[in-house]
Design brief:
The complex is a heterodimer.
Chain A: H1 5-13, E1 34-37, H2 41-54, E2 59-62, E3 78-79, H3 86-100, H4 102-106, E4 117-121, H5 124-140, E5 145-147, H6 149-155, E6 171-175, E7 179-180, H7 183-196, E8 200-202, E9 207-212, E10 218-223, E11 226-229, E12 232-235, H8 241-247, E13 255-264, E14 274-277, E15 282-286, E16 292-298, H9 310-323, E17 331-342, E18 349-352, E19 358-362, H10 372-385, H11 399-402
Parallel strand pairs in A: 1-2, 1-12, 2-8, 4-14, 12-19
Antiparallel strand pairs in A: 3-7, 4-6, 5-6, 9-10, 10-11, 13-16, 13-17, 14-15, 15-16, 18-19
Chain B: E1 10-15, E2 18-23, H1 28-34, E3 41-42, E4 49-50, E5 63-67, E6 73-78, E7 88-92, H2 106-109, H3 129-141, E8 156-168, H4 172-183, E9 188-191, E10 208-209, E11 212-213, H5 214-227, E12 231-234, E13 237-242, E14 247-253, E15 268-280, E16 284-286, E17 299-301, H6 302-310, E18 319-324, H7 328-338, E19 342-348, H8 356-363, E20 368-370, E21 374-379, E22 383-388, E23 393-395, E24 398-402, E25 405-407, H9 410-414, E26 419-422, E27 427-430, E28 437-439, H10 449-453, E29 458-459, E30 480-482, E31 487-488, H11 489-497, H12 503-510, H13 523-534, E32 553-554, H14 555-559, H15 576-581, E33 584-589, E34 592-598, H16 605-618, E35 621-624, E36 629-634, H17 638-645, E37 658-664, E38 670-680, E39 683-688, H18 693-706, E40 714-717, E41 722-728, H19 732-736, E42 740-741, E43 752-758, E44 761-767, E45 775-781, H20 785-796, E46 802-803, H21 806-815, H22 850-853, H23 856-859, E47 864-871, E48 880-882, E49 895-903, E50 908-916, E51 925-929, E52 934-940
Parallel strand pairs in B: 1-7, 8-9, 8-15, 9-12, 15-28, 17-24, 18-19, 18-24, 19-20, 35-46
Antiparallel strand pairs in B: 1-2, 3-4, 5-6, 5-7, 10-11, 10-29, 13-14, 14-15, 16-25, 21-22, 22-23, 26-27, 30-31, 33-34, 35-41, 36-39, 36-40, 37-38, 38-39, 41-45, 42-43, 43-44, 44-45, 47-50, 47-52, 48-49, 48-51, 49-50, 51-52
Helix pairs in contact in B: 4-5, 6-7, 7-8, 11-12, 11-13, 16-21
Classes of the chains: A alpha/beta, B alpha+beta.
């Protein structure tokens, strides 16, 4: 049943008892043409585009828990494409363009809200770094503009630009097309659309091994629900990608860290945009429900524990209260963590692996949500054709051998 | 008539502008109920009129904003936990224009349209309308209270504490545990979220303990504990988070209950307590029953009504009906009856209830209706009747619900202990603990006082026994599961019908359990309804995770004193006061404040920097370089250690000589640089960039402790111990000479270090230059730095010396093509890219980054290389370099401008840039992006001044 105001009204008169399942709960078949491991946003998007754009219908997405339960459901939902390097710009801009009509594409309101993402500059070094981004983005056709401190406050009235701040706001870079989306709806929308095209989404199905044939190529996976054959397997398992790839004997250049986020109690609209500050380590937006959504940093040590330390949240709220003094009496409602998989250059790995038939999409670190549609789209191309899409070709695993890194943390380097 | 049986100091307060009086010890909720006010709020979505459901932290409905002086306002406070004080002003929320006449109530009429997840199914056309029309409307309708409009004038404190036993919850189980631990001599902390300690005993009028009334036993026990020096009692303190290694986060509310708090007091105090053992005595929370109309004002938990009656002396109605599936509600009925309230009937879902409560109720003449359900209610602003499954309606003005009790396992679950499901009693209980921790009393599913307090003799208790989960049979599914978020049983049924099978999905799709009460009263009913709909045993639907905090915690408490100047430590050099007195402007570099430029009266920044640069080139300048990172590297293997950490070779560096060192990341990119001096065969004075000091020391320690364990080397940060004064310019030696003792300046070569005295103070004197002029860096103990600076300043007067800041330093070094790590480098730049290939010891067996330097891409010849640019105008740092004056969108950048200055020495703008294959393109013209277009620039070598280096050792 299509989602529409017409059906909403019709169902309202029927006591909302006629809504069909958004996706099935099928038992795994013995074999598929292709298996995607991991039903997060990226995995589900991959399956959707495999079905919708490459005509592949005999596909399964295997998920050890419930779909969208990992970082898809734990992030702070920020979307932007104002990256420094051309390779990144193309990848994230591809995603933003898909975001723009994703609700219509999926017939599911993912609430993409281009409310503007503003990144604050506090030091001369920040100014240099942001100007570099702005010049690079303008050349790449991506909107990103410099604001003075006063203009930044006009864009976000609760922002404190008092020059006596420990790290005063001296300007900002604004991407107006950046914004937020409703994270759960993204997973559900892709799941529903993929399911409608025949994709089997199999929850509570843990992959315990990756099978390879005599030639060394992938032949299927072992799972908690039995062996499943497939000649192509795409691993999209975020923080646990290195564990899964290890099953196929591939050692990944990944480290996994807990990353925290928190929300306040809901209040009436007070925060009209997304504000980020790398220098003081804080970012904040307000959800449609009214909660202030606040991102904190990663713990200093690698871990698979989905709770981070209290001191990390404390450090973030220090910064939030300085930047937005009116929220100091507000209260933290929920605090949680997710496991992020970080590569040496902090850019993702999307492509082939040394094992024939085995593909990987991981290493999104702290910023994967924004890329969801673009990531799924190019990874589907890679899985379907066996070769990377031009957009993800630079994001190969091989780059750690050749040295052709795409280091986005680079321009944030601080010294002098 | 309202029954009010308690006396005490009268307190005036207002709610929505109307004045009332309460009694000391009241909560806002008990005081409003005592005044006959049941309508306290509106629900989130349908704006339904709501009264209190509970009497404590679990309250989902009665959320208010409390205003104080000086712009203090706090939204979303539970009226059940707001302590009354004289002059308190509270207002209701989420209604317009008033609580009684709320336009938002129209949503209630549209409720069939607004079921679970309706917003995912519409608002999609036209595309632009989401952001411009629908979303703004939804945002305005959503939210609860208003965020404060003014900065918070209060302050917050933080404390750390250790103890042997931390007891969370001061009900009977917690107090007994505390007493036991305290009597063995342990340091014990007892925390409880309420204003007074006692938990359930505060509302216990029936039971006797050790032969005395419960209240007397409580008073005696508290007195005993209070008198023990090893016991700390913390009321008004919520344990909100259970972290690793038995670290608990507590928040103590210090002043919110006071009418006129001492301004010196913090509003709240955040405690971080590390305990050897933790006892969780967090009790249990009563559940509502889910039936149509279970949210009308006057419908509340039986335990809450009992608390209002016994503890606050407030009767919640004159004619009450009790609807229960649990024995404990009988105690409420009996206590209310004893207080003079008419108990119309006890409607018990169970076909054959027979516990001590039932016996006592029948003995007291109460009507018990077994095997009966309340399936609907009447009334609007207040419940007026309860419709029974037997098709009769009982008139009433309060309806008490006893759905059974849910152990408060929140903290246990946060501690990563595993829960177990007790299928017989349909409750989750603490299973295997993950830390040194035990759960006792209600939190552990033990509800009878006799078991909790054994071996003390207990009589007269009516313990919880029974309970019911899910939709009441015979009721329509319009009953509310999550009151605050307006989630009905029907919404959960719809979610399961739409294929949401995991409870996490059901929760997120319907928003059940996601309100500010975090599902304290709703989660189990939601689980049961979902399980029944999916035809699964309850545990198979899963359990949503218990996230910190237990109840919301003020941001200000978590931030504590880390605000203003204390937000992050400010590091100042010993010479800072001098610079400040000279009117220097400062810039933030990491935590340091560095003198940026010294502006004379009437000068612009540009003019000041120009003057400083020219003075250094012409005569001499003093520069405070104290922020430079310094690390003393000592030990028999010190040279070998540096060999492995730096690209350069150190073995042959003679004592008394210095070398410019480059340090790489594992990936082969420049991490840091600095001059290293050899003071002895086994001792090096290493300098790092100002911002990199901590990073470099950590990098060194990391390798020393994990990779190079064969080396005998010790590392000591000496950044704070040595202050550094750079003396740079053709007259530098002349300036220094009269002040130096024990060093033959004339015999010192460029890149050397000597130890001696300067201005009577011990010094490590380096002859090094970051300006291209003859230069020295005078290292002196920090405590003497200001005196030495002043002596040098005085000595410089005859030469017309200047003090220069970081801006001039940057210009001077750029004119010489000296790089700044973090400006010419960005983590993607190799030594070769910078033209520093000479600093890489090709013959060395290994050093960090060596293997990566051999990678194909790092050897490529089209990599960005450091070049100079002579641009038409001053470009922005960070501007991109392109081939064409009019580059089309999507053009590839050839590189970027890393530094750009208006050079006084050259009399024109200049820039350093990283440009693809730049060294092969000398003399060519490229284009630099500007805010509006591009400007042309000529590629030149990156050394603009004194290319031969003749001035360095003049």
């Amino acid at each position: 049943m299509r989602h529409s105001i017409f059906n909403l009204v019709r169902q309202a008169f029927a006591g909302n008892q006629g809504w069909p399942r958004q996706w099935r709960s099928p038992a795994p078949k013995r074999a598929y043409d292709m298996i995607v491991v991991g039903a997060g946003g990226h995995g589900l998007a991959t399956a959707y585009y495999l079905a919708a754009e490459h005509g592949l219908r005999n596909i399964a997405v295997l998920e050890k828990g419930w779909l969208g339960g990992g970082n898809t459901g734990r992030n702070t939902t920020i979307i932007r494409s104002n990256y420094l390097w051309e390779e990144s710009q193309k990848l994230y801009e591809h995603a933003v363009q898909l975001w723009e009509d994703l609700s219509q594409t999926l017939n599911y309101n993912v609430m993409y809200s281009p409310r503007g993402v503003m990144m604050l500059a506090h030091t001369q070094h920040d100014v240099q770094s942001f100007q570099r981004h702005i010049h690079a983005n303008r050349l790449g056709g991506i909107d990103n503009e410099w604001l003075t401190a006063e203009q930044a406050q006009a864009f976000c009235p609760i922002l404190n630009i008092d020059p006596s701040l420990r790290y005063p706001v001296i300007g900002a870079a604004l991407q107006r097309r950046g914004g937020t989306a409703r994270h759960d709806a993204v997973a559900w929308g892709y799941a529903r659309a993929a399911d409608a095209l025949g994709v089997d989404i199999i929850e509570n199905c843990t992959v315990t091994g990756i099978d390879r044939d005599a030639s060394g190529a992938v032949s299927g996976v072992q799972t908690s629900r039995g062996a499943i054959r497939a000649a192509r397997v795409g691993v999209v398992a975020a923080g646990h990608s290195s564990v899964l790839m290890g099953m196929a004997g591939v050692r990944m250049p990944l480290e996994s860290y807990p990353l925290q986020a928190l929300v306040s109690e809901p209040v009436k609209p007070v925060m009209p945009c997304v504000v980020m500050s790398n220098t003081v380590h804080a970012y904040m937006s307000q959800s449609d429900k009214g909660e202030l959504v606040i991102g904190a940093g990663t713990d200093a040590y690698t871990s698979y524990s989905q709770t981070g330390g209290l001191h990390i949240a404390m450090h973030t709220l220090d910064a939030i209260c300085e930047l937005f003094p009116v929220v100091r009496r507000m209260r933290m409602l929920r605090n949680w963590g997710g496991i992020v998989d970080v590569t040496p250059d902090r850019s993702p790995i999307i492509g082939k692996t040394p094992v024939p038939g085995l593909f990987v999409n991981c290493g999104w670190g702290t910023g994967g949500f924004k890329a969801t549609p673009g990531s799924g789209h190019v990874f589907a191309h890679t899985l379907a054709t066996g070769e990377p899409h031009p957009i993800n070709a630079p994001f190969s695993l091989d780059r750690f051998r050749t040295g052709r890194l795409i280091d986005e943390a680079a321009a944030a380097a601080v010294a002098h | 008539m309202i029954v009010r049986q308690r006396s005490g100091t009268r307190l005036r307060f207002s709610f929505d502008g109307k004045d009332y009086t309460g009694v000391a010890g009241d909560t806002l909720a008990s005081a409003l109920l005592a005044n006959g006010v049941h309508l306290m709020g509106r629900s989130f979505k349908y704006h339904r009129p709501r009264g209190v459901l509970g009497a404590g932290a679990e309250e989902p409905n009665a959320l208010v904003d409390v205003a104080g002086p000086d712009g203090r306002s706090t939204p979303n406070l539970r009226a059940t936990t707001v302590e009354l004080y004289d002059g308190l002003r509270a207002t209701s929320q989420n209604r317009y224009p008033s609580l009684r006449f709320d336009l938002g109530a129209v949503n209630g009429l549209l409720s069939p349209l607004l079921g679970a997840g309706f917003y995912y199914k519409t608002f999609m056309h036209p595309r632009a309308a989401w952001a411009t029309l629908y979303e703004p409307l939804i945002r305005r309708a959503a939210g609860l209270g208003e965020a404060p409009r003014r900065p918070d004038p209060d302050h917050y404190a933080q404390r750390y504490a250790h103890c042997e036993t931390l007891v969370v919850g001061a009900g009977p189980a917690g107090l007994l545990a505390a007493l036991t631990a305290a009597q063995s001599g342990e340091r014990v902390m007892v925390v409880d979220e309420q204003a007074v300690l006692g938990g359930s005993l505060l509302a216990e009028r029936r039971a006797t303990i050790a032969g005395q009334p419960a209240a007397d036993w409580l008073a005696a026990t508290l007195a005993t504990l209070a008198a023990m020096p090893n016991v700390q009692l913390l009321p008004r303190t919520t344990a909100f988070g259970y972290y690793q290694q038995n670290l608990l986060g507590l928040v103590e509310r210090v002043t919110d209950h006071l009418a006129a708090p001492d301004p010196a007091l913090p509003r709240e105090r955040l405690w971080q307590v590390r305990a050897r053992d933790v006892v969780l005595a967090t009790g249990a929370i009563e559940r509502p029953l889910v039936f149509a109309g279970n949210d009308r004002p006057g419908v509340m938990l039986a335990s809450a009504a009992r608390t209002y009656c016994n503890r606050y002396g407030v009767a919640v109605g004159r004619r009450v009906v009790v609807f229960t599936a649990d024995d404990s509600a009988y105690a409420a009925a009996l206590d209310l009856q004893a207080a003079g309230v008419a108990v119309v009937a006890i409607v018990d879902l169970r076909p054959d209830p027979s516990g001590p409560g039932v016996v006592a109720a029948r003995a007291a003449g109460l009507t018990v209706m077994p095997g009966t359900a309340v399936i609907a209610t009447t009334g609007h602003w207040r419940v007026t009747g309860a419709r029974l499954s037997s098709n009769t309606t009982l008139a009433c003005d309060a309806l008490l619900m006893g759905g059974g009790w849910t152990p408060s396992v929140h903290l246990f679950s946060q501690s990563r202990g595993t829960l177990r499901f007790d299928a017989a009693r349909q409750i989750y209980l603490p299973g295997t603990p993950a830390q040194r921790q035990s759960s006792v009393g209600g939190a552990n599913g033990v509800f009878d006082l006799a078991s909790i307090l054994a071996p003390l003799a207990v009589a007269g208790d009516i313990p919880a026994q029974g309970g019911f989960l899910g939709l009441v049979p015979g009721s329509r599914a319009t009953g509310f599961v999550d009151y605050q978020n307006d989630v009905k049983a029907a919404d959960i049924l719809q979610a399961t019908q739409e294929g949401f099978r995991s409870i996490e999905h059901v929760k997120r799709y319907t928003t059940t359990g996601m309100a500010t009460d975090q599902g304290k009263t709703s989660n189990m009913n939601a689980l049961a309804i979902a399980a029944a709909a999916l035809d699964l045993p309850l545990p198979e639907v899963g359990l949503t995770s218990f996230r910190t905090p237990y109840t919301p915690v003020t941001f200000g408490s978590i931030a504590g004193a880390a605000r203003g100047a204390l937000f992050d430590p400010v590091r100042k050099t010993p010479i800072h006061p001098w610079a400040e007195a000279q009117g220097a402007a400062f810039e933030d570099v990491g935590q340091w404040k560095r003198a940026w430029y010294f502006q004379h009266i009437g000068e612009s920044m540009h003019e000041a920097v120009k003057r400083e640069c020219l003075t250094v080139r012409r005569a001499v300048g003093l520069f405070d370089a104290s922020t430079l990172g310094k690390i003393e590297v000592v030990g028999p293997d010190a040279a070998e250690f540096l060999n492995r950490l730096y690209t350069n070779s150190w073995s042959k560096l003679a004592v008394g000589r210095c070398r410019y060192g480059l340090m790489l990341t594992e990936a082969g990119f420049v991490l840091d640089d600095g001059v290293v001096g050899r003071l002895a065969a086994d001792r090096f004075h290493v300098t790092t960039t100002s911002g990199g000091a901590g990073r470099v020391l950590a990098h060194m320690e990391d390798y020393l402790q994990t990779e190079f364990t064969d080396l005998q080397v010790w590392l000591t940060s000496t950044t704070e111990q040595w202050a550094v004064i750079a003396v740079q310019g053709p007259r530098a030696r002349d300036l220094l000479a009269p002040l130096v003792e024990g060093i033959d300046l004339a015999a010192m070569p460029h890149m050397s270090v000597r130890e001696g005295r300067i201005a009577g103070v011990p010094t490590r004197l380096f002859q090094v230059s970051f300006t291209g002029e003859l230069g020295y860096e005078v290292n002196v103990p920090a405590g003497h730095a200001l005196a030495v600076w002043e002596a040098l300043w005085a000595a410089g007067a005859p030469y017309d010396a200047c003090a220069y800041g970081t801006e001039a330093m940057h210009v001077l070094r750029a004119e010489k093509g000296y790089i700044v790590v973090g400006q010419e480098t960005d983590g993607t730049v190799t030594p070769e890219d910078l033209g520093l290939g000479w600093a890489v010891g090709k013959a060395k067996a290994d050093f960090v980054g060596k293997r990566s330097l051999a990678m194909m891409d790092l050897q490529a010849t089209d990599r960005p290389q450091l070049v100079g640019l002579l641009p038409a105008h001053l470009p922005q740092e960070g501007a991109q370099i392109v081939d064409r004056a009019d580059p089309p969108i999507g053009s590839a950048a050839l590189g970027h401008v890393t530094s750009a200055y208006d050079s006084a020495t050259l009399g024109r703008p200049m820039a350093l840039a990283l440009l693809a294959g730049g060294r092969r393109r000398m003399g060519q013209t490229v284009h630099i992006t500007t805010a509006t277009g591009t400007m042309p620039a000529t590629i030149v070598a990156p050394v603009f001044y004194d290319q031969e280096g003749a001035r360095l050792d003049a």
